[in-house]
Amino acid sequence: MNSIGFVSSAIISTHTNLKLASFSKPKIKIKTIPYSLNSSFRLSKLRVSATKDQNHSESQTSNNVSDDEVTEQHPLDENGGVGGGFDLGWLPSFPHVLIASLSNFTFGYHIGIMNGPIISIARELGFEGNSFIEGLVVSIFIAGAFIGSLSTGSLVDKLGCRLTFQIDTIPLILGAIISANAHSLDEILGGRFLVGLGIGVNAVLVPIYISEVAPTKYRGSLGSLCQIGTCLGIIASLSLGIPSENDPHWWRTMLYIASVPGFVVGLGMQFAVDSPRWLCKAGRINDAKRVVWELWGASEVEGAIEEFQSVSKNDGSDLDSRWSEILEQPHSRVAFIGGALFVLQQFAGINAVLYFSSLTFQDVGIQSSALASLFVGLTNFAGALCALYLIDREGRQKLIIGSYLGMAISMFLVVYAVIFPLDEQLSNNLSILGTIMYIFSFAIGAGPVTGIIIPELSSTRTRGKIMGFSFSTHWVCNFVVGLFFLELVEKFGVAPVYASFGAVSLLAAAFAHYFLVETKGCSLEEIERSLNSKA
Question: What's the pTM?
C-alpha cells in the first residue's frame, strides 16, 4: 500500500525517445500496551460511544486461557519498557510486522528493477526499439497485480493472513526465477505476470495483517513500515542496478536476487502469528487469546476477545464474505472512500513526477538516470521515516490533508518555474525544489496513510474485499496514467499537466477533510461499531 505509485513511471520511461525529444523540463504481562479496547472514544465526525455486548459468558468460560498463562509476567515491565525507561509496547508485534513488510521490500525491488535494465533485456531478447513490447514487459506486471488484488479478499477470509503470505511467495519466487532465466519474450512476460500476481496479493495483504496484529497505540507507526519497506526495496534495486549500465547481462543477477525475499517471507511466516481477529472469527478462541497475550499483554486478553466476538456476532459467523456486501451500508461508503483515495492518489501525478524527475535532474547536471532515481528514492525514504514518527501523534486525517496541500504547492512551484521567464539556473533550481518537495510530501502522507486508513475503516468481515476493490482501482488508475501521460504532455505541455496534478491534489485534500474520520487511538472494533451506528 503506499510508494505503490512508482510502478507506471517505468512504463512511461519506455517511450522516452519517441515522446520527449522536445521537452527539457518537466515520491508475559504488559499493562502498558494501551490497546484501548475498554475505553470510550470520539471520532471527529462520528461522535457515537461504543457499547459492548454483554451476552458472552458461556462461550468465554469454555475457551479461557489457563490462569497460569494469563498471569505470567511478560519480559517487559508494567510501563511498557525496560525498567520503565522507554516505551516498548510496540516491540512484541514488531518482528511479525517486519516479516510482513519484507513483502513490500520485494514490491519496491521489482519496481526499481525495470528502471534501467529494460534496455539490456530488450537488446538481449530481441525486441530493442519496439516501444510497445518494452511497455508490455513492464505493464503486464500491473495486469497480474490487478488480478492478485481482487483475489486476496477471498484468500484472506478463508485461509487467514499467515497461510496466504506463504502461498503468495510461490508466484513471487517462480516469477523472479523464470524472468532471470528468460531467453524469449514469452518467458519474460510469463515471469513478470507471476511477479505482478504476487505483488497484487501483497499490496492488499500487508496492510490488513499489520492493522490486525498491531496494538492500537502503534498501529499507524507500524503500518508505515509498508512504505518504508517499499522505499528500501526501490533503493536496493536502484543501487544494484548501477552495474547494468556497463554489464548487459547484469539484469539476470538482479532478478535472481529478487527471489530471495520470497524465501525469507515464506520461512519467517512459519514463526509469525496469525491475525487474532481472524482466529476468533474462525472459532479458534484459544489461539486468538494466545496471540493477544503475546503481542498486547495478558491484561488485554479478555477485553480483546470480548470485542472480537461482539463484532463477529453482529457481522455474521461465516468466514467468507460476499462481494455484494460491499454494496451495502456502511461497507459501500468505506469502499467508495477507499477507491476514491486511490483514484485521487494516482491522478495527483506521482508516477509522472517520478518519471519526469530524471529529466529535471539532468537539467542541473545529474546525467545518470540511476543516480537521479536513487536520490528520489532517498527523498521518499526520508518522508516515510517522518510519517512513521508523525502518524500516531498527529493523526491520519491531518497528515494526509497536509500531504496533499504540500503536493499542490510543489506542483504550482514547478509550473511557475516552467511558465515564467526566469534565469535558466533559477528555473532549474525551482524545478528541483518543487520535485523534491512533491515526493517528500507524498511520502509523508498520501503514500502511507492511504494504505493504513482503508483497513482501519473497513469492518472485520469485509476488510479483505474492500481492500481488494480499492487496490484493484489503484492498479487501473496506475495503468491509465502511465498510458496517457506522455500524450498529454506532447499535446498540452508540461505546465498545464503539472497544474492539473496540483488541482487534483487540492481536490484530494478537500476529500480527506470531508469524508475521512480520525482513527488514531481507536481500536478497529470501536471504529467499526461507530460506522455501523451511522449506517
Answer: 0.84
